[in-house]
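Kindly go through one protein, given below as sequence and tokens. The question is how this chain folds according to its tokens.

***
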Amino acid sequence: MNLTRIALLTQLATTLPLVGLIWLIQAVSYPQFARVGAGEFVAYHQAHTRLITWVVGPLMLGELVGALSWLLAPHAEVPRALAWGGLGMVLCVWLVTGAISVPQHEALASGFRAESHAVLVSSNWLRTGLWTLRGALLLWVVSQQLAPPR
């Protein structure tokens, strides 16, 4: 198996689960934060962040490796600009995560704060959109790979 195929498979195996996961977080997990009682919130939030990190962390690292390897082994049928765009989406997700999501989670770690929760939910739409777009890009690339030769 060549590096081009490994890069694509790595991205599919990491990005597509992240697309599903970010929608679950956006639609289910984050809204539930506002419904947890004040007495239970700190423990609930602590468990959420600890457990979700074990799922999201390895996937995000694998996705970054896959996006970088796509630049090293580009697909002949795919414009190189799309590989750069894919990497750009990954880097933007990391930026939003580090600059906005993590600080909001840190603010929530000592108790529920409506303003931190609102920023977390609204900024998470950026990650949701980026990962959804990235997933669609990768599915398009796969469709090009599976298309019969012209």
